[in-house]
Each structure stands twice: as C-alpha cells, then as structure tokens.
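>> Question from a student workshop board

For tomorrow's exercise we were told to take the sequence and the ligand below, predict the bound structure, and bring the output to class. My setup keeps failing. Could a helper post the expected result so I can at least see what it should look like? The ligand is N-acetyl-L-norvaline.
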Amino acid sequence: MKNFTCVQDLGDIQSALKEAFEIKKDRFQYAELGKNKTLMMIFFNSSLRTRLSTQKAALNLGMNVIVLDIAQGAWKLETERGVIMDGDKPEHLLEAIPVMGCYCDIIGVRSFARFENRDDDYNEVIINQFIQHSGRPVFSMEAATRHPLQSFADLITIEEYKKTARPKVVMTWAPHPRPLPQAVPNSFAEWMNVTDYEFVITHPEGYELAPEFVGNARVEYDQMEAFKDADFIYAKSWGSYAADTYGQVLSKDRNWTVGEKQMAVTNNAYFMHCLPVRRNMIVADEVIESPQSIVIQEAANREISATVVLKKMLESLK
Ligand code: AN0
Ligand code: CP
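>> Workshop helper replied:
Here is what the output should look like for this input. Compare the format with yours to find the bug.
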C-alpha cells in the first residue's frame, strides 16, 4: 500500500481485519520492520488521539518519529498557487512539502476541511499536494473529507463487540456549538458500506451528507425510529454539506443529544464516538458513563489501525 486516504487503499477488508486482530495479540511482532525509517507527522489542526496513537504505532514498528505542528513554530504557509506573497505567510506549501519529504520515509497529514470552498475541500487540495510533491508515501490523519484511521478503528471495535453476524449500526447527527467537518461521518459511512451490516444514518433535514458517502445506507429523519433495535449507536456532529449552506450550523436542537430516552429503544446498543466529545451536547453523561459506552475501547483501537496501516506502508517501501 503506497498511500492511505480511504477504505479502498487498504485492499480486502476481511484480511485487513484479520491482520488487525493478529497485531492486537502482539503489537511488537514487527518491531524490526521500521528500523531506521522515519515517520513525519504534520498537523495543520489539533489532535490528541491521532497524534498519540499514530506515534505509538510507529514505535511498535521500530520507527523514528518527527512531529510538526504547522501552527506552532513552523512558518505560516501559503497554500494557493499564483498568490503574490506580500502578506503574513513567508513560505509556500510547494517548497515546504518537498523539503519535509527529504527528512523522512513516510508522511502523515492532518488537514481538516476549511469550509471556505466546498470544491477545494472535496478535491482534497492539501493532502493531494503532499501526495504529488513530497516524493513519499502519504497517509491521512484526517483530511478534508475522510478520517480513515478512525473508521478502521471503529470497524475493529464493532467486530469485537458485535453479538450477531449482521448488527444494526446507526450513525446519528448530534448538536454542537460550532460547525464540524464531515470527514468522520463520511468516512464511517464509507467503511460501513463495505460491510454487510444493516446501516442507518439519521439527522435533521438539511444535514444530508454527500451521496457518494451515503452509498447504500438508509437515511431516516426520525431519530427515535432509526434507533429502534440498534446494536450500535455512532454519534457525530457535522456542519452542513449542502451547496448553499456549506459549513454552517443549521440546528442546535438538543433533542438530538443522545440520552437515556433514545438508548432505551435500542437493542441495548453500544455507544460509540470518535472523541473529542462535548458532553450533554452530543451525548448525556449517563450514556457515555454507562457500561454500554465503548468510546475508550474505540480510541484504544486507534493504535491497532495505525499499526496495520504503517506496517503495510513500510512493507511496500522495500
Ligand atoms: C474534529 C472533527 O469533527 O472532525 C476531529 C474529530 C476526530 N472534531 C473537532 O474539531 C471537535
Ligand atoms: N478521534 C480523533 O481523531 O481524535 P483527535 O482529534 O484527538 O486526534
């Protein structure tokens, strides 16, 4: 695997899952694979889990790690070509990227949707420039439209906890004070679409995701109806995708906050969220603290998904 930005890059999902469970049994079994190889992690946005779990994964594989927070200590970067650079940005991405590539073997990039221009976000202009100009294999640590390391960890978690072969998985929108990217819900939907689970998406009208990500999911606007008999509830807030309201908050309706009332109609569902989560906006304290909440186990699996992805990338360096 050269680059990793979406589920298709991983190849056969069942064999990737098998590899994940083997690595989970002994996460140091490939500790020689990354010897003298350097991972560079570039963050344009904040992170707790991705930063720590990806670094841990690289250490499991014997790699060296360099982390750069663009906003803290690097030159401010111009990203548009053709701009007369007489403003506050002393360096262009088109020089910075190949320079970064000189000092490492694999690059991870976190660059959220900027919500300025939908086409730019959905064309993935930042991570694609890394793929084009770094001369190195590149993986997404959440790009504008997808967060595949998260979705892979989510899938591993569902496989661990499911009690039936074909569980009902419901992804619900939830309120948040600020508009959040669609990367996590897009990606989760994309990964659910390659399983044979029953997959339902519920959100208020106006919050429709891009059809290429919804795929074969059933969209149900009535949250209580969607939650009936669910085995997994996957909560996430996102800003509008619609062309005329792109990146806006359309609703702060706290009736959509996942509480005990909603969980009561499920099949004693597990509660999932990628974190960070705002309590009592996205989910009630009682739900996230209940035994059915598997958010910590889900976060723990980020180390496993990252170890599998880096292992596959290291193998194709040779
Ligand atoms: C980010 C998002 O919604 O994409 C990161 C989630 C992993 N969340 C926030 O910005 C709060
Ligand atoms: N879930 C996730 O990617 O968390 P961070 O934003 O803290 O990395």
